[in-house]
Amino acid sequence: MQTRAATALYDYWARQRGERAVPLRSAIEPADIAAILPDVFILEYGRLRAPRFRLAGTRLCAQFARELKGSDFDALFAPDQRGRVARIAENVMTQAAPAIMHVQLVDGTLETTEAEIALLPLATRGRTADRIIGTFAPLPGQRPPLSAFRYATLGALSVVDPERRSDPAANRPSIPMPTSIMAMRPAGLGETVSRVMHLRIFEGGRKAGEPQER
Questions:
Q1: Which pLDDT belongs to residue 181?
Q2: Closest residue by Cα to residue 21 from 91, 98, 81, 83
Q3: What is the pLDDT of residue 161?
Q4: Which residues lie below 8 Å from residue 132, measured CB to CB, with a gap of 6+?
Q5: 196-204: long-range contacts, CB 8 A cutoff, minimum separation 24
Q6: What's the confidence (pLDDT) of residue 178?
Q7: 3-state SS string over the chain?
Q8: How, if at all, do strands 131-138 and 112-122 pair?
Q9: Torsion angle of alpha carbons 26, 5, 70, 176, nearest 10°?
Q10: Per-block average pLDDT, block size 10, for the chain (214 residues)?
Q11: Are the CB atoms for 133 and 5 separated by under 8 Å?
């Protein structure tokens, strides 16, 4: 985990979990994680069991320039990766296994920002995980985006074993994800877009066959 938000939430999640496989939602007190609350979100099962946002922190919503509550989690990602992202989130719940996603975010000028998403299972009752608490935060040292994020692409995935996290030899290596087609763009395209986005383009002009003015 490379971000303060992910590390702080995981440590809190582990303390609240105790001897349980996953902590109860009722054990999570927002006041205990007030410092990272703007980066925190909660997911629940949505359409066709695809996880959706039940709650989303103010900073996360601001970075995408929209209210995320009620929207699908996988809708933040490039279309060709949404099915994979939905399955990852569902597996976090069904397997009660925390996961860390390394993502690349594309803003309105097509510039990119590297970020980390932590997904930690929660249970509303019993011992079955049916929700996720997570964090979303850019990696340290990133330049602030020039505009709101348009979509994310998934670069790598790590699964955390809560029983062995303190043992470095037990850490599972990150799994590279297939590159999204949305991440393949010519070098310098972002700079070109940022130079022309303020211009207005009007349709019209000389019709075919009309002589040019001299």
A1: 54
A2: 98
A3: 83
A4: 42, 43, 44, 51, 89, 92, 93, 119, 120, 121, 122
A5: 197/108, 197/109
A6: 56
A7: CCCHHHHHHHHHHHHHHCCCCCCEHHHCCHHHHHHHHHHEEEEEECHHHCEEEEEECHHHHHHHCCCCCCCEHHHHECHHHHHHHHHHHHHHHHCCCCEEEEEEEEECCCCEEEEEEEEEEEECCCCCCCEEEEEEEECCCCCCCCCCEEEEEEEEEEECCCCCCCCHHHCCCCEECCCCHHHCCCCCHHHHHHHHCCCCCCCCCCCCCCCCCC
A8: antiparallel
A9: -120
A10: 95 93 94 97 83 96 96 95 94 93 93 96 88 96 88 93 57 58 46 38 40 45
A11: no
**Is the Cβ–Cβ distance between 89 and 51 less than 8 Å?**
yes
Beta strand 99-107 with 112-122: parallel, antiparallel or unpaired?
antiparallel
- Per the CB < 8 A criterion, the answer to whether 170 and 161 are in contact is yes
Name which of 156, 25, 34, 47 is nearest 99 in CA terms.
Answer: 156
**Residue the block writes with tokens 């850019």:** 138
Sole residue written with tokens 């985006």: 145
Model pTM score: 0.78
In this structure, what are the phi and psi dihedrals at residue 69, rounded to the nearest 5 degrees? -55, 130
Report whether 155 contacts 176 (CB < 8 A). yes
Question: Which residues does 151 contact at the CB level (< 8 Å), separation at least 6?
Answer: 76, 77, 78, 105, 106, 182
Please state, in angstroms and rounded to a whole number, the distance separating the CA atoms of residues 119 and 115.
13
